[in-house]
Structure formats: structure tokens, C-alpha cells
Amino acid sequence: MTESLKFLRADLAKLAAYKPHPGGASTQPLDLLDTNESPLDLPQELKVKLGNFYQHSLEANRYPDGGHTQLKSAIAEYVQESAELTDQITPNHISVGNGSDELIRSLLIATCLGGNGSILVAKPTFSMYAILAQTLGIPVQTIERQAHNFAIDVEQAQVAISNRSKETTPVRVVFVVHPNSPTGNCLTSAEIEWLKSLPKDILVVVDEAYFEFSKLSLVAEISQRPNWIILRTFSKAFRLAAHRVGYAIADPEVIQALEKVRLPYNLPAFSQNAALLALQNRQVLLPLVTETICQRDLMWQELSNEFASDLQLWRSQANFLYIRLAKAKDQDLELASLVTKLKNCGTLIRHTGGGIRITVGTEAENQRTINNLRACLLSIS
Ligand SMILES: Cc1ncc(COP(=O)(O)O)c(C=O)c1O
Predict the structure, then answer these.
(1) 22, 130, 187, 357: which could form a disulfide with 140 (CB 3.0–4.6 Å)?
(2) How confident is the model at residue 235 (pLDDT cuts 50, 70, 90)?
(3) How far is CA 267 from CA 55, 240, 351, 365, in A?
């Protein structure tokens, strides 16, 4: 660090800024299959409604509703309906964030900041838990997953949780994803039982960013478990990644803690309205999920049939596939080369966690991905 920047925290020198989607900066048209967005934009009639809201109702000179009143009510109703819950989910069970990324940061601030605890993650998983923890100076404890199905190594996890040695900061938050990114697997019943067995002074975060694809949720646990929190997002199935809206579902006291640490006007009025409109029109938007699932399974089948000896593929319960090379001598090196080759052919995918993650796109995009993979794998072998 240069002499003149001594006011910066020394540990920041070790961190790299998050590398956003390079798609926009590319000189050639790319199929953007690296961030698990929906392949389809909002339908035109919803965009017109949103435009009308901006033109006729939104007062640009006024701050947005900092309490997200209407949106929280609509989310509570959606959560209740989609899980067919008997226990009432109310707006007091909901906190809304500028993407679920913001909620992850808020809950880290509310739990571990200032030497109060470390987080536990099982790799490979969503990278932002560790990235955000590190930016706040929060220690990250990492454990492994089973090689064949990516279930968490529960024994190793339990060792990390029980470690009370002076050198380690005790675990205060466990992050799990259901289904996991990048590997696409849902939590097994053994993993869920382990999470249920954790002491009440540990917060269990179940990230359900891909819930609409898996249709499996642990939201029914919220009424009995004040140390659990569920995260969801509008960035995937609801096609609103541009608007940055995520939400948390938890016991009202946990929600209150998140509300205390967030910025007062964290979500622009336009984004609040977009999420509200998406919920009101979920019968129009969510049917695409069925098509994506169908495309995902077709793609899995085609890749398994054609590249059985080249690729190792896993079943996915989300809107992406996770793949490794079957015969690589140096997996990461060879994958990096494959990803670059694919990008040069026009397919942008993500190299992460020792594998590649390919978002399921439209039928045409998926076909191009398969064709490009064929060409790139041929040039490798
Ligand atoms: C597991 C998981 N959680 C959270 C997010 C972030 O969602 P948001 O766009 O709401 O910040 C993602 C995005 O890819 C994700 O994969």
C-alpha cells in the first residue's frame, strides 16, 4: 500500500474487488450464461406498466418508502401461498434488501462484526458470503463437501462448530444454499437434521435464491426456529436482476435486527414497484420456470449422451448445470482455457469452485452452448 493511502485498512490490500459481468464490455454479441439470470426480459406489457408508474405516479423528488410497506405485504402473501403454510407469515417476518447481497452484509453486521464471531461455509458455494465477510474483517471457516454429491461433510462441520480453542473465533453463522450454487444440489435430509441440531446461539442462513426452480423450501421451519433465516431474490425466476431486490424471511426479532443495520432508503421506489408488479403478475412470469427446467434436463441429457467420456456432469435443481472435465490433469488450468475458448465462440460461462457453471438459457442459446462446447472440447483433445 502506498505511503499516502495509510488511512486504508491494511487487510483490504489482500482483497480484490468483485469482478462484475464482463458481458456489457464485450465487442462481440455473447450468450450471457455466467450469472444465472433469466434468459427472458420482463414482458413488454409489464415494462409499459412500470414506465407508466414512473411517468404518472412516482415522485422523483421524494425518498422511497423506507419501510417497503406494500412490497413486504405482497412478499409475505407470496411466501405464505407458495409454501402452503399454516403458520402466518406477516410483513414483520420480512426484510427487503438491495439484492440478497445487501441482506447477507446486513446479517454479517448484525452477528459477527467486531470480533463477535466467524462464519462457516462449505465450498464450493456462493462466493459472496466469504467476500462480504472478509470486507468486514470477519473470519471465514471453510469445510469440504462430499466429492460425489456435494453434500456437506457434516462431521467436519461439527468439528468446526465445536472448536472453542483460543486461536479461532467461534462460528456464529452457518451459510447453506438450497439448492447450492454452483453445484445445483439441494440439502439432503441428513444436512437438514444437522442444521436443526445446531445450538440456538448460531444463526442458520438458508439461501433459497433458486427456490422457484427447486420448489423446495425450509420456510416452514421459521415459526419454530428463531435462529434460522431464509434468503430469496427477485434476480432469478422473477427476471428482475437489473432492479436488485432480495428479501429475508425470519422471526420478527431477527428481522428487527436487520432493519436496524441497513441503510434507511436502501431500495429505490422504481425497484420496489418492479418487484411488486412482478409479484402481482407471477402467473405471467413464473411459467417460464417450467420451460427452463425442461431445457435444463434436455441439456443435461444431451451433454451426458454426447460427452460421457469428456465431461463429469451433476443433476441440478436450479437454473444452471455444474460440470467438470472427466480426464483433466490440471482441472482449473484446463477449465480456464475452455472458458476462454467458449467466450471467443460467443458463450460466456462461469469458472468457479473447481468446475464450470452454465446458466440454462433459451433453447437457441443452449443449442449454441452445446455446439460451442463440442468445438472447444475437440480443439482441446
Ligand atoms: C445463492 C445466491 N444467493 C444470492 C445471490 C444474489 O442475489 P441478488 O441478485 O439478490 O443479490 C445469488 C446470485 O447469483 C446466488 O447465486
Answers:
(1) 130
(2) very high
(3) 19, 13, 31, 32
Distance from Cα 238 to the centre of ligand 1, integer Å: 13
Q: Whose CA is nearest to atom 11 of ligand 1?
A: 99
The Cα 260–Cα 262 span in angstroms is 6
Residue 146 dihedral angles phi and psi, to the nearest 5°: -65, 135
Question: What angle separates helix 99-111 from helix 252-261, to the nearest 10 degrees?
Answer: 100
**329-351 pLDDT, tens digit each:** 999 999 999 999 999 999 999 99
Q: What cell numbers appear for 232 in the block? A: 430469496
Domain boundaries, given as residue ranges, for the chain: 20-36+286-380, 57-284
CATH fold of 20-36+286-380, please? Aspartate Aminotransferase, domain 1 (3.90.1150)
Half-sphere exposure of residue 159, counting CA atoms within 13 Å on the CB side?
Answer: 7
Residues with CB under 6 A from ligand 1: 36, 99-101, 126, 177, 181, 207, 209, 233, 235, 241, 246
Q: What is the pLDDT of residue 312?
A: 97
DSSP state of 54: I
Ligand 1 centroid distance, CA of 53 (Å):
27
pLDDT at 379 over 80: no
Give the Å distance between the CA of 232 and the centre of ligand 1: 8
CA dist 83 and 41 (Å) reads 26
**CA 36 to ligand 1: nearest atom:** 14
Cβ neighbours of residue 296 closer than 8 Å, sequence gap 6 or more: 316, 319, 320, 321, 360
Mean pLDDT of the chain, nearest integer = 95
Q: Which of 380, 324, 379, 315 is nearest to 349 (CA)?
A: 324
Per-residue pLDDT at 25: 53
Q: What is the pLDDT of residues 68-112, one digit of tens each?
A: 999 999 999 999 998 887 789 999 999 999 999 999 999 999 999
Give me the percent of the chain exceeding a pLDDT of 90: 89
Distance CA 236, CA 39 (A): 9
> In the block, which residue shows the cell 427452463?
292
Q: Is 373:349 a contact under the CB 8 Å cutoff? A: no
Q: What pLDDT band is residue 27 in, cutting at 50, 70 and 90?
A: low
Q: What is the CATH number of domain 57-284?
A: 3.40.640.10
